[in-house]
C-alpha cells in the first residue's frame, strides 16, 4: 500500500478555518430542549481539518483561506506553522469563522457554521497563489468557502495539470455543473451524495438508504453524476464505495467496489470525513502506488484512527501513529 512521505509532491487545500465550540452530551438536543453537556473549544473548519490531515499524513501542504484579525486568526497561523503548513491567508475585517458542534455518547454529531471570514475568500486572492498551484500534484476543495473561489482553485489546478478533488460538503451547499466538470474526483458522504443526486439528476434517494443500495445501482448513479471522473462515497461504519469511469480504472481491476470500514473504538466522528479527504489527497500526491484502491485504503484507515480521539483538526493522526497501528500501511 502507498505511504506518503515528506518528499512527496505538493497538496494545496483551499477552504475554511473555524474555531470550533464543542458540547459533549449523552444525547443530541431536540428542539426546545435544555440539556447538560461538557464544553471545549479548538481549531476546525473543513479546509483546515483536511490540510492538517494532509500535512500530518506526511505530505508538503499549502492551505489557502481567509482569516480575521482576531484570536481565531492567530490560532490558525500558529497551528499552521507548528504543523509545517504553508499558510496563504487573505486578510479581512470579518471575524474568523466559527462552528457550534454537539457530540453525543455514541460519537455522532450536529454542526452549525458561522462563516465569518470564510465567506470573504475571493477569486483574486486564489489566483494570486498561482505558484502554489504550479507546484501541486493534488488540489483539494470543499464548499464552506464561496463557490467562485472554489471554482477558481479547481481551474488553477487544471491549468497546471494537478489532480482535482472536490469534497461536496456540507450537503446544503450549492454545487454547480461547472464545479463538477472541473473535478477529477468527488468525495461525498451519504447525505451529500443524496443531495447531489436530487440537485443534478432529480433522483430522490434517502441518505439512510445509500449504503444499502446494490453496487450496480450505485455505479449507475455515479456515472450519471460524474461521467468523466471518480466518485468516492464515504459510508461511515459501512466503509467506502468507489465508482470509476468504465474505461479509466486507475490501476483497479473493477469499475466499482466497496472498501470495508476499519475496526476502531470511535468516540468522536467529528472531522472523520475531513481526515479521509486530506489523507486521500496526501496519498495520491505521494504517488507510490498505481492502484487507486491502495490510496482509498490508506485514507480509510487514517479516518478511522482519527475517530479514536476527541476534536477535529487536532485529532488528525501523525503518519508514525498510522504505521504503529496498521502494520500493512506500507508495502
Structure notes:
The chain is an alpha/beta fold and 331 residues long. The protein has a single domain (16-325), classed as Ribokinase (UDP-N-acetylmuramoyl-L-alanine:D-glutamate ligase, 3-Layer(aba) Sandwich), CATH 3.40.1190.20. Helices cover 35% and strands 22% of the residues. It has 12 helices and 13 strands. It has helices at residues 46-56, 71-82, 123-127, 130-134, 147-159, 177-181, 190-201, 207-210, 215-225, 272-286, 292-306, 319-325, and strands spanning 10-14, 18-24, 38-44, 61-68, 86-92, 97-103, 109-114, 136-141, 163-166, 185-186, 230-234, 240-243, 256-259. The strands form 2 sheets. It has a 9-stranded mixed sheet, with helices on both faces. Strands 3-2-6-7 form a 4-stranded mixed sheet. A hairpin with a 5-residue loop joins strand 11 (230-234) and strand 12 (240-243). Helix 1 (46-56) crosses helix 10 and helix 10 packs antiparallel against helix 11. The radius of gyration is 18 Å and the shape is globular. The model is unreliable at 1-8 (pLDDT under 50).
Following the backbone from N to C, one meets helices and strands in this order, namely EEEHEHEEEHHEHEHEHHHEEEHHH
Provide mean pLDDT, rounded.
92
The coarse silhouette is globular
Strand content: 15-25%
Largest β sheet strand count, sense and barrel closure: 9 strands, mixed
User: Percentage of helical residues?
Assistant: 25-40%
SS elements, strand count: 13
CATH homolog superfamily: Ribokinase
Could you say what the CATH topology is called?
Answer: UDP-N-acetylmuramoyl-L-alanine:D-glutamate ligase
Q: What is the level 1 CATH name?
A: Alpha Beta
- Rg, alpha carbons: 18 Å
Order of strands, main sheet, comes to 5-4-1-8-9-10-11-12-13
Unreliable spans are 1-8
